[in-house]
Amino acid sequence: MSKPFPKVASSRHADRTIQMLTELTDKMKPSSSDKSELKLSIGDPTADGNLRVPKVLEDALVEVVQSGEYNGYPPVAGYDETRKAVSDYLTRFCSTPSRKENLKWSNVLITSGGSHAIVLAMTAVANEGDNFLICAPAFPHYKAVCDSYGYECRYYPLLAERNWEADLAAMEKLVDDRTKALIMINPSNPCGSNWSRPHVQEVIDFCERHSLPIISDEIYSELVFSGETFSSVADFDTNVPRVILGGGAKHVVTPGWRIGWLCLVDPSGQATAYMEGMDRLSQLHTGANSVCQMAFAKALLKTPQSHLDDFVRQLEAGAKVYERILEHDCGLTFSKPCASMFIMFKINFSHFKDINDDMEFYDKLLDEENVQMLPGTIFGMSGCLRATTSRPPEVLKEAVERIVLFCDRHSK
């Protein structure tokens, strides 16, 4: 009989890797309620079938598959055709020829979803012990990458009373000689905000003063509400190197296709080594999905405006449903969202007799009403809750009714 085999331990890198968003949504604990499950936690626009892939993109995918030409390994950086399509697509957010010219297709990498782009952008510029300035609240994947690779996550607060703009004074106190980049998410997940052009300029000015590259997550750039204008960091005259992150998960409703991208904007050529580093790190993967990225090459620039307009109308309708919570004065407040697919609530704990933090609110709401919101703690800002605006109004109305009942039950 062979001797017992010793336990196989996981690496420190693996032990440090925890994505709290996944932990809460994919491993959702059972509710004690017999009511139907209502998840306001999801970031998947395909969940209910109300938001669909543009037909032009579906047709392109069928054409690519039937051609039989793209079943092999793609280049790890992505097909040149796809990189050029992304570069051309990004120019729509720039207002002058010179700014458009800064969006070079050779500085585009096609990634396996937006999360892969985040990993490449962060790990190619930082070493263990370095730090990033990250907005709070922020998409939790940024904190997960910091923890996994041994970086320090330094949150700079966003101010709810100012449409979730960055607290510039707080940022000044966080930066030091080991700060590698500033990370911004605009339009915001989880806040549902869209920064004004003057405020984006203020953030760029800060980065100029401190010689900080910018990693700008702009995956929701198409999903700004009526009356709003999106300002990309690419549309400014500055020598600050900027990595634009994006992908097809949201605006063309294809999260499962796993097509993301990054594009380095580097007018003065000071970040060539950074770009080469991202390119080398992309070699650890065998490239993004071949047939899907070629479908994007053929159809990304042909997405009809009517598709985007309909998507935004549905998000605006979803956001409006939540206004009933304000009408009931039930201990939750929010700044009305003006972009992306989310809304961020602030909890007035003085309203409640037995709820003391956002995790407790999350747990009790799920247990009693089978409604899952997400606690602000996982986004870097305690005392808040995130909910989606992408689900159909009838689903959101039922969820809001349960939230109001829950708040009344626990009020003083």
UniProtKB/TrEMBL annotation:
Chain positions with N6-(pyridoxal phosphate)lysine modification: 250
Occurrences of domain Aminotransferase class I/classII large (ranges): 38-403
Name this protein carries in UniProt: Aminotransferase class I and II, putative
Signal sequence, renumbered to the chain: none
One example GO MF annotation: L-tyrosine-2-oxoglutarate transaminase activity
InterPro entries given in the database record: Aminotransferase_I/II_large, PyrdxlP-dep_Trfase, PyrdxlP-dep_Trfase_major, PyrdxlP-dep_Trfase_small, TyrNic_aminoTrfase
GO biological process: L-tyrosine catabolic process
Top-level EC class: transferase
Pfam families: Aminotran_1_2
Source organism of the structure: Angomonas deanei
NCBIfam families linked: tyr_nico_aTase
Listed EC numbers: 2.6.1.5
Transmembrane segments: none
Keywords: Aminotransferase, Pyridoxal phosphate, Transferase
Coiled-coil annotated residue ranges, if any: none
Necessary cofactors: pyridoxal 5'-phosphate
Family designation: Belongs to the class-I pyridoxal-phosphate-dependent aminotransferase family.
Superkingdom of this protein's organism: Eukaryota
